[in-house]
From TrEMBL, chains A, B:
The keyword Plastid does not apply. The active site is at D319, Y403. It comes from Sugiyamaella lignohabitans. The gene is AMO2. The keyword ATP-binding does not apply. One of its GO terms (molecular function) is quinone binding. Keywords: Copper, Disulfide bond, Metal-binding, Oxidoreductase, TPQ. Homodimer. Coiled coil: none annotated. Residues 246-645 form the Copper amine oxidase catalytic domain. This is Amine oxidase. Residues 3-89 form the Copper amine oxidase N2-terminal domain.
Amino acid sequence: MPHPLDQLNPEELQRAVGHLKNYHKGKQLHIKNIHLEEPPKSLLGPYLQAEKAGKPIAPPPRIAYGYYYIMDDKKAEEIWIDLDTNQITKVVMVALPQHLPMDQDEANHIETFMYDDPLVLGALKECGIEGEAIKTVASDGWMYGCDEITSVSRHMMFLMYSRDPKTNHPESNIYAFPLPFVPVYDILEKKFVRIDWCATSGDDDDANGINYTTRQKYKFALEGHQASEYYPDLVPNKRTDLKPYNVLQPEGPSFTVDESNLVQWQKWRFRVGFNPREGLVLHDVDYDGRRTFYRLSVSEMAVPYGDPRPPLHRKMAFDFGDVGGGKCANELSLGCDCLGTIKYFDGHLVEPNGNVLTRKGVICMHEQDDGILWKHTNYRTEAAAVVRRRILVLQTILTVGNYEYIFAWHLDQAANIQLEIRATGIVSTQAIDHGKRSRYGTVVGPGVLATSHQHIFSVRIDPAIDGNKNSVSVHDTVITPWDERNPKGTGFINTKRYIDESSAFDANIASNRYVKIVNENKINPITGNPVGFKLAAAPTALLMAPPGTVARSRAAFATHHFWVTKHKDNEFYAGGVWTNQSAKEVGGVQEAVNRRDNVRNEDIVLWHSFGLTHHPRIEDYPVMPVEVLKVGLHPNDFFTENPAIDVPPSTQQFNRSVEVFQTRSCHRM
Amino acid sequence: MPHPLDQLNPEELQRAVGHLKNYHKGKQLHIKNIHLEEPPKSLLGPYLQAEKAGKPIAPPPRIAYGYYYIMDDKKAEEIWIDLDTNQITKVVMVALPQHLPMDQDEANHIETFMYDDPLVLGALKECGIEGEAIKTVASDGWMYGCDEITSVSRHMMFLMYSRDPKTNHPESNIYAFPLPFVPVYDILEKKFVRIDWCATSGDDDDANGINYTTRQKYKFALEGHQASEYYPDLVPNKRTDLKPYNVLQPEGPSFTVDESNLVQWQKWRFRVGFNPREGLVLHDVDYDGRRTFYRLSVSEMAVPYGDPRPPLHRKMAFDFGDVGGGKCANELSLGCDCLGTIKYFDGHLVEPNGNVLTRKGVICMHEQDDGILWKHTNYRTEAAAVVRRRILVLQTILTVGNYEYIFAWHLDQAANIQLEIRATGIVSTQAIDHGKRSRYGTVVGPGVLATSHQHIFSVRIDPAIDGNKNSVSVHDTVITPWDERNPKGTGFINTKRYIDESSAFDANIASNRYVKIVNENKINPITGNPVGFKLAAAPTALLMAPPGTVARSRAAFATHHFWVTKHKDNEFYAGGVWTNQSAKEVGGVQEAVNRRDNVRNEDIVLWHSFGLTHHPRIEDYPVMPVEVLKVGLHPNDFFTENPAIDVPPSTQQFNRSVEVFQTRSCHRM
């Protein structure tokens, strides 16, 4: 019997595919995803509580949810299948202007014939690429984006590159050889509809107007480019002076995990979930028998690029909605992606043709030493008490075309949760004429422009601080009047206001603004404040696109740091349900806020938007050292003392460190 | 022969003390510090370059610099002693209103007789503490602070506490038993001059006016208080399910270090310095034979408290200037404060009586695995290239009374430098009447108020990006006009302006503002930008105290995020040279900026102020889980590609991780 929060297992997925194929018998389907429809909170909540009380009740029904194209009919649908009764319970058409996400199979499939297409061949020829030379060409299938509030066909655009023509090595860095045109493909009509040529004159375009007429120069499109490789086989002269560093856990890990991905570690108890859209999800997170969070996930990421010259102004990816966090998850390998004693979790996906695919190790979990958790030295006696911080790391790594994202949830022994995001991979590049510069990006190699862009993430926090009814309070530090009660003007206090109605608001550095999620029904007996968790937010720049732009309209979630909404089943996606080619955020946080629900002492969701505004460094090329972002959830008035006070002290007997004395320096300069 | 950047060694310190004592023969001295006066850049710079070129020149003179009180004369002086010629070269009086820092010996000494003092005994009696009960009393000697722009005597104030009266255990947490009065001691007059009583009515004081007349209640000052212990011997029921986690480096560390603390690791080469004021300093930092930073240090920290009710409005510590980062450095112990293969560095200090004291292991250095440094998976072939990030950690831990600060410089293989600050220890507490609350802090135990406060740090960055002449540029992301060159309004660019004249400015989240240090004389051949490093700043709340307050005047450095000044020898201290009881920042960054020097293509210093505004959580009590702050320095246009491209890939053969499969869950709820 699967747990209600278990992913659909391969047998269930196969059964769902069977029902779907049977329903559309004889039709060619392109299945995008089939996954568990998470049970409504009204059913799942009581089930989880009964389970923990040791008095299990009947589980909610297992529902498979899927969406797909009926290729012949050029239609898209969603389907719901009850796996307990084997009944299709609902089918809904996904009508224009909405589109289903793109997928990698689609891009790969189109690439198999695109270099035979006359339009593409013609463009390649204009770049001086013909015959054998075509064999080095590669392309990244991209979401077409949206720049008009009109209904358009289901398109995909291709950013064109070449492997190093000198080697044609399959792992050659194609982003060092960008080609200046973008074939546009109509998926449902199954044809290339046009070639868009790119402006390549850099700042000259800006000074003199965009000039697409100097196309003869493209005949030498790859001339003067240089390989810039990252793949280890292609990088000579590696460092030889790095010594091994091994993590040993002679008694094994401190966690336990069962068949339903129930993890217990250092008073934490939670379930590891996985789905094609969000990837890694944490469910039903308890600490020391108390509820903290119902569900934690990364909901969306928008990646708009800053070069406004058509057609590359279209580059704006919603990596979760347009492609899928789970769909893009790497299979992690032992000794490479994590260090120490590691538990891997698999993910079950459905391929477009209905095959069930188990991706091995899409999530890894391991413990890490994270330095000192707390210390105090009594200066009178020099007696020191020091406790190290052990963290439990749940990591998943996404490859979305050129980019990689490493998402890791960290749990610690002081009841802190942290989401760490590392951005790495290869910056998206485009062609620029040799010797020119562009204010829209950084020239990182001959003829290669890495464009400025943003990554705005939304993390979705569905709290359950000691129960379902929670509130959000906003805290600002303000000075108090300089009067007889504040004779030297030094007074400052922390103010608090509650969010009563669903709404959005922003960070404020100057006032040290922070946000708490609290349960007003339960008061901390010592502080007198409601029990809660504090959000340690990432106060970063928000979406640059100004009001009135389609870019802003489609990513409303990226325009404010904080959003408080009333919980609604299946309202998981900050940027809307169908982001691919969307002109507007539909079903996202902006609409949720617009309901003007009461969110005080209600079942609420807090969404936090933050990100990177990335003006690429040349040091980010050909592959980018991680850029790290962190947000945290810290208990605040939840306990009656430091919850890590009972962690055993750090001792040499336990830690077995080694002291080194002077080592001879070789005095190389 | 010591290196010019070596600390004064014990022999040198002893010699300096000898000269000093001889100079003031027969006088009782209270020596605050004696340490190396770092050679002027005009001498040291050429020396370091000649050394690296393998053509050493004569070293600059070894100068001992000290400051001390002549107790009988009630005077303070600074002294300079040339250790090569054994000559005193300069003596300068430190005149009022300036005072030398306080020190722990002073506080400890006063505590030996304060419980015999009639003033203190009288106050204790008013609190119901007499006879045997006095034996549990403890006090923290505090900097007196300053609240008037007038010259005052050299004072120290004492925050009064008690060990747990039930146990009188020496490691009992005294901050659970605050007493509501503050004895004030005149150091040079050697007497207690008054008792200041504290307001304890919480918000009632604010509503009704501060009421010091209900003093009869103090007779039961410790009644109802409860012990709240952190010391491991006093904490029962520790966790038993944490398994050992060992770091093994079978081939030893990847670094080398010589007798002069010259460290070489992964293309980095630098010297580890230590002095009583700043503690850990990094000198002459090169990467792959290129200069990056001349000197990196934490310069100052101001800790103002927000409770304006006298006398506790005085609580404002400058932990570096009032006490000393090196003076407060813990002796670190193997297996407790770091994990792995560790090199320890000692620090040499002079005690007030002139004894030379070697503090063992005030700095530790070790390598750490820090997750993934870069990764890319070619989605076409699923070939992954992944490199782990090894960091070199230089850590020092300060105990300043109740608080601990963990400062760690992290260097990585992508030429990144990061300063990580962890705040831990015990929040400063004060008495509050049972059952009352205060908007100035958090009640963390019966009768215990943990007051809101700030920690504003200043990190001092003396750059040498490919040479001494550097500039600072400020970068803001702005949208471009929505016109024919930006037809869909999506354009944004990174703007740059240089700082021409020494000045201060602030972070700006909305525009993604960042700061670079560049060398305009050397242009990156690919990007066309000057070589540089980017400061990844911590954009946090600044000093709350408003204009016009003495608190703001004494900590001008804490009122702006960024300060650019022209380098001046010995201008090391953001908050001024003599911060103890200062009414104004003298010799700090504000004065340096006021010189209105040219700072474009000059020998410059960049100072970054940032911090924590801490409204204590009850979870921070009785000891605080670390709160972490980070600032970074990242190469930006310094290289022509990712400098970590040559780091060998992460392999299981090298890393030796272990996979765990399902473990049985014990299903404890």
